[in-house]
Design brief:
Number of helices: 10
Strand content: 35-45%
Helix content: 10-25%
Oligomer: single chain
Shape: elongated
Number of strands: 50
Radius of gyration: 34 Å
Strand order of the largest sheet: 8-14-13-11-9-10-12
Distance between the termini: 12 Å
Length: 693
């Protein structure tokens, strides 16, 4: 128990002694007028006398609030414990989210405040076991939980920093508000330790204004750390994100299982790069002619080079060769200038000895059967002509680089711009299928097998030929599933290992038999905070379920028989996105986070608020805090982004990318029967929980 809490309790005891005689008289009067056990009394720390009904539990507070119009009884599906045998009724604060409900909402915010473990909390709802879920609301100041409190110490985003064994590390810390400095406490050591704090000081007594909490080694002397300082909004313990990677549907979860990476299969063939002719490009060397390999082996050498800055008119560069750096030395690649627009220079990069800057284009081709292809009815186009002409004429054409109509790297242009084209290249022999065989770590394509070139010519068959090894053998140890196809620039692939279908991959990610072993940065930050601040009060808490509902409402592009062209209608969508918003049931066992659930195990009985619980509150005013904060609710996964929910500064719920850093307000659940020792739930006189668990 903190010193502040002890001093307040001590002062209260003195006042109680002084008023004992008066209190005894009052008790006698109350007893005679009401009968035995109908009332109990409590002298509050502010010197007032509280007379309340026998039920002085926080569960009872919410139950009575129903009769007063500030709360409602929940009658839907629910499960608040792993055993699932809860029989108590569930009550939750409620105010309509409209102007008529604003006064009720403000009343609730002055009735649901609790001080527990020296921190302010707000009650959300009761559990079916008789417990009470509460959301963090900052450090108490002078025994109050007002909404004008100052900033306090908290965690900031998980990042990396260089650490040394010469620094001192401690299991705990103390913070002085007077001079804004941290000091290491507890067990200290002169070697790097995970889950220790450090000032990056070489002396045990060193202080710092920014502290580091060590999580794990990243690489070499680089470590994953949380930074701590005294600039965190009062209502949150810090800021964090679900994940720095957003390209997987499981990354908007508190913890998660298998990860199947998504990657672009992108063949953008660029013929340009922009540079400023008077600045960075001005000191490059150019020439009318170039040699490859004769003067310098395997390199391009300009003949009689001059600096670009010597030109009176930048357009004189068109058709010239330029070194690929600002020096006058031979290079392995060289720029061929194809156009100038103001100060912007466009060029084509020549490599491997090519000296021409042209291509052969046609509407069809012939496969010569020996790895070469010939353009039928060819037309030769220089890159200057491409840049200066109607480049749209070159869309959906077959192309060979150079001046020969026969080549080994034939390409098909499916998207063009003034200075580039996107293409399918020699990978047209890559095989795609509608089925898979898997044996001892090796995939082989099965069923109907086609080539990428078939897909280019008839994109309608892409939808049911979505597996590929990205080779022309059809055999691989990692197979790819076509997730989406955007004709403007890429195919999006999901890389699969040790599963025989995309359905199996989804099951493993979202509802498999794993135990969600990978922790989000948010969880790691909350666990570090709990270990320091709530460990001594664990006996007051119940092991309730925190639901991260990943029940799939719509597969979208993850359905192998569904659409493949990307649009918002083809997102993978979860339960809460357009589904049942206020339903407290949690369909998947792997989404029922709890200390006692081996398939979704929590380290401590603490997590983040769930969308279903915050939705039931209804009013933005009841949900608002001094900062935006994260809500545990997967929404959907697009072709590239995992989307979750957060509460805005005004309390409204909205969607955000899983790599966005937002405030963290942990949630705990008080054990059934937990009583308050004093208070009326207001911000200036919260319910206070003393005693030993």
């Amino acid at each position: 128990m903190g010193d502040n809490m002890f001093n307040r309790k001590f002062s209260s005891n003195i006042r109680r002694k002084k008023r004992m005689i008066i209190l005894t008289i009052i008790l006698l009067v109350v007893f005679l007028s009401t009968g035995y056990a109908a009332f109990t009394t409590n002298l509050g720390i502010n010197g007032t006398l509280n007379v309340s009904k026998y039920d002085q539990t926080l569960y009872g507070v919410l139950k009575k609030a129903v009769n007063k119009g500030y709360a409602r009884e929940y009658t839907g599906e629910h499960q608040d414990s792993i055993s699932g045998n809860g029989t108590e009724k569930i009550y939750y604060w409620y105010a309509p989210n409209n102007s008529s409900g604003d006064s009720i909402a403000n009343e609730i915010l002055d009735k649901n405040n609790v001080i527990f473990a020296d921190y302010c909390w707000q009650m959300i709802r009761t559990t079916d076991t008789g417990g009470v879920k509460m959301i963090y609301n900052g450090e108490a100041e002078n025994g109050q939980c007002l909404n004008n409190r100052s900033n306090h110490v908290g965690y900031y985003d998980l990042g990396t920093t260089t650490l040394s064994s010469t620094y001192y590390y401690g299991t705990n810390y103390e913070y002085s508000k007077a001079n804004n400095l941290f000091t290491l406490t507890g067990t200290t050591t002169g070697s790097i330790r995970e889950h220790y704090y450090t000032c990056k000081g070489i002396y045990e007594s060193d202080t710092c204004s920014q502290l580091y909490y060590v999580l794990s080694q990243d690489n070499g002397t680089s470590y994953n750390v949380f930074t701590l300082n005294n600039n965190v909004n009062y209502s949150i313990i810090g800021k964090g994100r679900y994940n720095y990677n957003i390209s997987n549907p499981t990354f908007n979860s508190y913890t998660y299982n298998n990860i199947y990476k998504l990657e672009n299969y992108n063949n953008r063939y660029s013929i340009r790069s922009g540079n400023n002719t008077t600045n960075s490009f001005g000191y490059y060397y150019y020439s009318n002619t170039v040699d490859y390999g004769n003067i310098t082996s395997d390199k391009y050498t300009l003949i009689n080079p001059q600096t670009i800055s010597s030109l009176a008119d930048p357009t004189e560069l068109i058709g010239k060769y330029v070194y690929a750096h600002s020096g006058n030395n031979p290079t392995a690649e060289i720029f061929y200038i194809i156009g100038v627009n103001g100060t912007q220079v466009y060029y084509y990069t020549l490599t491997n000895g090519r000296l021409d800057a042209s291509m052969v284009i046609g509407n069809s081709y012939t496969n010569n059967g020996n790895g070469t292809y010939t353009i039928n009815s060819p037309t030769t186009v220089t890159y200057e002509e491409w840049y200066n002409g109607d480049y749209s004429n070159y869309k959906n054409k077959y192309i060979c680089d150079g001046t020969s109509a026969t080549c080994t790297n034939i390409r098909y242009s499916y998207y063009v711009g003034v200075d580039y084209y996107d293409y399918w290249g020699t990978e047209h022999t890559y095989k795609f299928s509608d089925a898979l065989n898997y044996n001892n770590g090796t995939y082989s394509l099965a069923g109907d097998i086609v080539t990428l070139w078939d897909l280019v010519n008839d994109q309608s068959i892409v939808a049911n030929h979505r597996y590929t090894c990205l080779n022309n053998t059809g055999i691989c140890s990692i197979v790819n599933y076509i997730h989406s196809y955007n004709s403007s620039n890429y195919i999006r692939l999901v890389k699969l290992e040790e599963v025989t279908s995309i359905e199996d991959a989804l099951h493993n990610m979202l509802a498999g038999d794993g135990n969600n072993p990978i922790e989000s940065p948010i969880k790691q930050g909350i666990d570090a905070w709990y270990k320091k601040n709530l460990t001594m009060n664990s006996g007051f808490l119940e092991d309730a379920i925190f639901c991260n509902d990943r029940y799939i409402r719509s597969l979208g592009n993850w359905d192998p028989s569904g659409p493949i062209t990307y649009s918002t209608s083809t997102n993978l969508r979860f339960k809460a996105d357009g589904g049942v918003s206020g339903n407290l049931a949690c369909a998947n066992e792997t989404d029922r986070y709890s200390v006692g659930n081996t398939k979704a195990k929590l380290t401590y009985p603490i997590a983040i608020p769930t969308y279903q619980e915050m939705y039931l509150l209804s009013s933005n005013i009841v949900r608002l805090a001094g900062s935006e904060y994260v809500i545990d609710r997967p929404v959907y996964f697009s072709d590239r982004y995992a989307i979750f929910t957060e509460a805005a500064n005004n309390g409204a719920l909205y969607s955000s990318n899983s790599n966005e850093s937002v405030g963290i307000r942990p949630v705990i659940s008080l054990a059934p029967g937990t009583k308050y020792d004093e208070g009326n739930g207001s911000m200036d006189y919260p319910y206070v929980i003393y005693g030993d668990a």
